[in-house]
Design goal:
Length: 243
C-alpha cells in the first residue's frame, strides 16, 4: 500500500549514542516466530516485559548521523517490525491488521499505518513515518520491502531473528530469495509471472536508477523471466500472520 512521504525525526545532541543492541528482540523473535514467519501472538501477549524494555530502548535511542548506513537501516527495520507487533498485541485478537482503527479507513489518514502510537527520540511516529518518511526516503534500497512485515500472510516472512548491521546485506538478500521463491507470494515464469502487489505498489522503487522489476525478480527467483514476460499481480491476503 503506497503511502505519502513523511518526515523522520532528527536526533538531538542529547540522544546521540552508540548503535543499540538488538539481541533482546532477537530472543523474542526466536521464541515466538516459527520458521515460516508465523507469530504466536497469543503467547507473546502474556509475556511482554522484555518486549516493552526493547521498545523503550528503541524509543530513547534514535539513529545518529555517526551510525553507519547499515546500523541505521537495521534499527529502522527492526523498529517497524517491532512496533507492528506492538500494534497487533495491543488489539489482539484480530483477524487482520486492517481491522484496527476506524471502520471507515481513509488512505494516508486513518489507516493503522498512519496512527502515531509510539515515540522515537521524543517525536510521535507512525509506521508510515518509518517506511516512507525514513527508509524509502533516505536509504535508496528497495530490498527493505522484503524485510518490513505488516503482520499479514502476503507480507514477506517475518525472520525469527533481528536485523543487524553486520548481517544486513545477506539478510536482505535472503529475504528476497525467500519471498520470490514462495509460490504463495510470487509465481514467476519465463514468459508470464504473477507477482506480489509489492512490485506494483512500489514500482517506482524497483525501477529507480535504470533498474527494472524483471531485473529484481530475476536476482532472486529460481525461474528467470524474459524481459518481455507478461506480469500480473496476485490478490493480497491481509489475514493475520498468526500460528
Amino acid at each position: 500500500m503506497v503511502r505519502p512521504t513523511l518526515a523522520a525525526p532528527h536526533p538531538t545532541t542529547a540522544t546521540v549514542a552508540a548503535p543499540i543492541d538488538h539481541s533482546a528482540f532477537d530472543k523474542l523473535l526466536k521464541k515466538y516466530v516459527n520458521a515460516q514467519g508465523l507469530v504466536d501472538y497469543k503467547a507473546w501477549k502474556t509475556d511482554q516485559a522484555a518486549f516493552n524494555q526493547y521498545l523503550a530502548l528503541l524509543s530513547k535511542n534514535p539513529p545518529a548521523a555517526s551510525w553507519s548506513k547499515a546500523e541505521q537501516m537495521a534499527y529502522w527495520i527492526n523498529a517497524y517490525n517491532a512496533y507492528t507487533i506492538r500494534l497487533i498485541l495491543d488489539h489482539y485478537p484480530v483477524q487482520s491488521i486492517k481491522d484496527i482503527g476506524t471502520k471507515i479507513q481513509i488512505p494516508f489518514v486513518t489507516t493503522p499505518w498512519a496512527a502515531k502510537f509510539f515515540t522515537i527520540g521524543g517525536t510521535k511516529m507512525s509506521l508510515d513515518n518509518i517506511e516512507h518518511g525514513t527508509l524509502r526516503k533516505q536509504y535508496n534500497d528497495p530490498r527493505i520491502h522484503f524485510a518490513l512485515v505488516c503482520a499479514s500472510l502476503s507480507c514477506p516472512r517475518l525472520r525469527n531473528e533481528a536485523y543487524t548491521a553486520a548481517k544486513l546485506d545477506s539478510q536482505l538478500d535472503e529475504q528476497g530469495r525467500d519471498f520470490l521463491r514462495n509460490p504463495a507470494k510470487n509465481k514467476p515464469g519465463k514468459t508470464s509471472a504473477q507477482l506480489s502487489k509489492y512490485f506494483d505498489w512500489y514500482k517506482g522503487d524497483w525501477t529507480a536508477n535504470n533498474q527494472t522489476v524483471v531485473g529484481w525478480v530475476n536476482k532472486y527467483a529460481a525461474t528467470k523471466l524474459d524481459n518481455t514476460a507478461k506480469i500480473s499481480y496476485l490478490d493480497y491476503n491481509w489475514s493475520l500472520n498468526e500460528q
